[in-house]
UniProtKB/TrEMBL annotation:
Pfam hit, one: DDE_3
MF (Gene Ontology): DNA binding
Region of interest (Disordered), residue spans: 289-308
Residue ranges of every copy of the Tc1-like transposase DDE domain listed in the record: 149-293
Higher taxonomy: Eukaryota, Metazoa, Spiralia, Lophotrochozoa, Mollusca
The protein, known as: Transposase
Source organism: Littorina saxatilis
Amino acid sequence: MPPRRKLNEFERGRAVAWFQDGVPKREVARRLHVSISVIVRLIQRFTATGRVQERRRPGRPKKTTPREDRLIERLALQTRTASSSIIRRQLRVATNTNINQQTIRNRLHGFNLRFRRPAVRQRLTPAHRAARRAFCRRHVRWTRQQWSQVLFSDESRFTLNHNDDRLRVWRHQGKRYIDATVQEKVAFGGGFVMVWGAFSLHHRTPLFHVQGNLTGLRYRDEMLRPLVVPTLQQMGPQAVYQDDNALPHRARVVNDFLQQSGVNRMEWPACSPDLNPIENLWDELDRKVRSNHPPSQGCPAPLPDATG
């Protein structure tokens, strides 16, 4: 929520004049770009006292001027990783104003600025960006019928003990380390299973348990030949196969096999965003598994085979 703008004395007088001329309070607030509550309080004060000046406010006066407040905001936006102590030193050099770090944070909070962890995204080269744009332009006008002919595929890793740092617990102050509010972790997730699958609007392959390292030969012989090609044949001659740019998927033996089998393969941009709808399916599957099988408290047992 942006900081509330204060009206100067001229604007307060104009607001009262408009109101006396019959302009509704909401319209007055719109013209002055303020909340209607500001206008309501102003009219109430004018009706009670006949004055538009603000009453004296109790408390300690601000040590910074509006100009210095804007400078603090500008310093934070110029170097967004600068801490409050760094901004404090820069302000002291620029204006000879000496205030503490909490005051710096208060001023920035007044501008709706918070010091938070940065969002993380993959670094993209100009070639990556161009490939993304080209992909979007090729498919932006695809119809539901065309997308229904795409067989989306991907692998996903499921761990027995999962922590996405989004878990929250209710606890009393000073009770952080009681058993009821502590989440135990197991090294490397306590074991995992890697699965592969593919699906379209009307078809899907069996869920395949990937054991060990996946190579191009295994991808061809264990997934493409027995699972993907028969499914594409069921979908019809317009079927398109989608997989990402993982090294086993782009091996020469895989490319040769798909070409010999007459498979239409979708060009997938490198370092692509998660446009594959199977990501949503993996998330739903993960939630279902965890709701039926809560994490164990002791040493985890081996996970069952997920094939089929």
